[in-house]
Design a protein that fits this description.
Oligomer: single chain
Distance between the termini: 37 Å
Keywords: Aminotransferase, Pyridoxal phosphate, Transferase
EC number: 2.6.1.44
Strand content: 5-15%
Protein name: alanine--glyoxylate transaminase
Number of helices: 15
GO cellular component, one term: peroxisome
Pfam families: Aminotran_5 (PF00266)
Largest sheet: 7 strands, mixed
Number of domains: 2
Length: 463
Amino acid sequence: MPRQNPPADNHPARLSLISRHLAPVYPINTPYAVERLPDTIDTSLLPKTQSRSLSTSPKMSSQPAHPTLLIPGPIEFDDAVLQSMSHFSESHVAAGFVATFGETLSMLRKLFQTSDPSSQPFVLSGSGTLGWDLVAANLIEPGEDVLVLGTGYFSDGFADCLRVYGATVTELKAPVGTKPQLPEIEKALSEKRYKAITVTHVDTSTGVLSELQQLSALVRRVSPDTLIIVDGVCSVACEEIDFDAWGLDGVVTASQKAIGCPAGLSISMFSGRAMKAAQNRKTPPASYFASMKNWTPSKSSLHSLSPVPHLADHQTVMQNYEAKKPSYFATPSPQLIHALHTALSQILAKPVSERFAAHRAASDRIKKAIADLGLKQVAANPDEQAHGMSAIYLPEGVKGPDLLPILAKKGVVFAGGIHKEIVAKYIRFGHMGVSVLDPKRNDVDHAIKSLREALAECGYKKE
């Protein structure tokens, strides 16, 4: 749907609601700075109700007017996705919901490009971070070695999570704005046996894109028993991932980024090899909710919610849902599952290759505009630049706390920096999902124009 213009008034309290947590001196989700103005926000400006029309007219959005959210997730959501969350309350084991959940799990196989019946999708209530816990609690036992390819804040977080569960972590870190290279990865793999290697496909803190196909081939050749685990939180549904062809063992992601569904779902895919590693571990998983054994229990321990004796025969909770049979370990979120079902239906209406190509084309156009403004990206090598976001260095003399509120005033929300080494030196522009794929929107053009004008208002002139 087309982006709606923001309210005309420029009341400072309204701007503070939008921008107070996005400047580099107080970025969201980082321990390296603090928020400002936590107790001085005029909440009277917030809408008391948000009535929505269910009109399907392509000329108008049913969403309340709001600044365009162009951070690297959450992203702007399609009307139909949001409206699907208005589904009436229903039991999580009711036939209608179970059918929707089953179709959702099957569609995830198509998104990840896996037809291997031993592969297992998981959709759990939680954020993308829960995917780290799934890996660390189930695939790695205390004392086992894991090689973490370091590309920024989020790969660092994955390493920290693994350590919490007792893994012995070796971090192979690259300078800010780049990634570990294949020769050094090969050297590390040849020196020690690693249970798993983790790679952050797109590190949201730097916009660095890691290549997966050649990496996977290298691991299979040098250390074939090593599990290949991908953090795809900021890549799934905008960067190509061919789960089967590339021989991946795990990809973890979340609902609120390129998939285009509100936050609240941890989404992942694991290979049959990874599932065997979880099932054959010598020690119990160090988690209850994140235990794959609780989501994939034996027949004798499965909670059948049907009087039919064969309901759960030789199948797991997730497998039962995919087979459209009710099953239970912990309560899913029916409303979010409906939203995910709608989002995946939209994604798979066309070949996923077209979606990846469209994101690449939009990214190329945005990155050209960034260069035309005389700005540089944190990821300097074009081959290592993500296609769903851009991390942009600020020019000399321009500060994020000055620039971001001006952008917000123009109806565009970018994100501040989050990488501790360069936190005040850059901003982040998210360009994925409907903002770049819906031809009726002008989000990207408006964002580029607003960035150019905001830089000028901050005194920047291209040399």
